[in-house]
């Protein structure tokens, strides 16, 4: 049976399950990077605390440390020295106070710290000028933040500045992270040639490179501005080298110049599924070849974007250990939409503040080739026969903006 037929079409849920199942069996190896350069990387393993924090009882402010009972009994105590952060722990002379700075070890025998601005120093003694705090006040206790052995970062966590601070506070110099998946993006078609009579700029490769780089992939782009089978095959062969994942756009429908699937099949690739019951994006096909996963996306930009968002993103997130889906956004629809039986329809919507939360409005689109609709949309709604959109009812969408 010719690969171009859609006899092996599956529904959206089945396609997504097949993609996720394959991803679950693929895990790029780990590598180590300096903590300072770990932002945006994904932890390859749990990271545990080496020590408790704070590592000892320390002062929460600049002031004076003393025994609470002694200050209550005498009202004023002589000052014996000063402790600063980094000094070794010492013992407090009985019946004395000691100047102390934020982060310094609490002297043994002291159980209270009072802010310097709330105390008066006269002739080498110190006395409160405000009500005395309770015993134990203004002392950060050993291990109150976390104990040694506490899990600080879970495997699969995408690291950012918060984790850099946390790990650096533990003296962690480098961290094991999942190697960035290497993705080759291939656009093809004679219309991409600069000298073609009906030349079209390539928007798919830059779009996909930006989209996939944004979730942590290392992306290289390749172009086969031709409908010549031999030249397209040579481009695909070059793009496959060193890649974990290959993403192609165009050339996968049933036209005379749609050669991608036959080229890949002839090279030994196995079709996982051919076509998905979605609109737009039906021609989407996924193959595997010698451990490499190949996503063949439609050439129309709108359809390519939806297929990448709904299939390539989940695949890459899973192989990077980030199997949690992006949180959805809930909004009240101001329109009604139904999907044909067995089809999942993806609708771009814009979000607007309403009296009781977000309102979503359908973004006008001319179909699979539409590229401006996405620049006007904030989320994507999935509509099925069993889950139609009804005006005035809540609808869940996939956010398209990074700040949502």
Automatic annotation (TrEMBL):
SUPFAM superfamilies: MoeA C-terminal domain-like, MoeA N-terminal region -like, Molybdenum cofactor biosynthesis proteins. Its cofactor is Mg(2+). Residues 184-318 form the MoaB/Mog domain. Coiled coil: none annotated. It is an enzyme of class 2 (transferase). Belongs to the MoeA family. This is Molybdopterin molybdenumtransferase.
């Amino acid at each position: 049976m010719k690969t171009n037929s859609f006899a092996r079409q599956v529904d959206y849920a089945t396609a997504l399950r097949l993609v996720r199942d394959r991803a679950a069996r693929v895990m790029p190896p780990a590598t180590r990077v300096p903590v300072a350069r770990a932002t945006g990387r994904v932890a390859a393993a749990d990271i545990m605390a080496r020590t408790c924090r704070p590592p000892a009882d320390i002062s929460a402010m600049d002031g004076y440390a003393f025994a609470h009972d002694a200050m209550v009994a005498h009202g004023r105590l002589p000052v014996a020295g000063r402790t600063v952060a980094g000094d070794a722990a010492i013992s407090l002379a009985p019946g004395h106070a000691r100047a102390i700075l934020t982060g310094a070890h609490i002297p043994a025998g002291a159980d209270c710290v009072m802010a310097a601005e709330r105390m008066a120093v006269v002739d080498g003694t110190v006395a409160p000028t405000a009500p005395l705090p309770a015993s134990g006040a203004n002392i950060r206790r050993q291990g109150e933040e976390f104990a040694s052995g506490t899990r600080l970062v879970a495997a699969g966590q995408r690291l950012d500045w918060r984790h850099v601070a946390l790990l650096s506070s533990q003296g962690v110099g480098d961290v094991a992270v999942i190697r960035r998946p290497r993705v080759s993006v291939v656009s093809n078609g004679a219309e991409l040639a600069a000298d073609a009579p009906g030349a079209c700029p390539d928007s798919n490769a830059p779009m996909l490179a930006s989209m996939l780089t944004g979730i942590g992939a290392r992306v290289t782009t390749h172009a086969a501005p031709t409908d010549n089978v031999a030249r397209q095959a040579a481009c695909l062969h070059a793009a496959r080298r060193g890649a974990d994942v290959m993403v192609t756009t165009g050339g996968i429908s049933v036209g005379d110049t749609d050669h991608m699937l036959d080229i890949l099949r002839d090279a030994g690739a196995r079709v996982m599924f051919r076509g998905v019951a979605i609109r737009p994006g039906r021609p989407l096909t996924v193959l595997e070849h010698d451990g490499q996963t190949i996503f063949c996306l439609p050439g129309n930009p709108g359809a390519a974007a939806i297929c990448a968002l709904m299939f390539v993103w989940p695949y890459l997130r899973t192989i990077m250990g980030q199997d949690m889906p992006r949180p959805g956004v809930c909004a009240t629809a101001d329109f009604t939409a139904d999907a044909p039986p067995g089809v999942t329809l993806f609708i771009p919507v814009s979000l607007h503040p309403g009296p009781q939360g977000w309102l979503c409005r359908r973004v006008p689109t001319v179909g699979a080739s539409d590229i401006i609709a996405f620049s006007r949309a904030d989320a994507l709604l999935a509509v099925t026969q069993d889950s139609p959109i009804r005006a005035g009812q809540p609808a869940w969408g996939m956010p398209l903006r990074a700040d949502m």
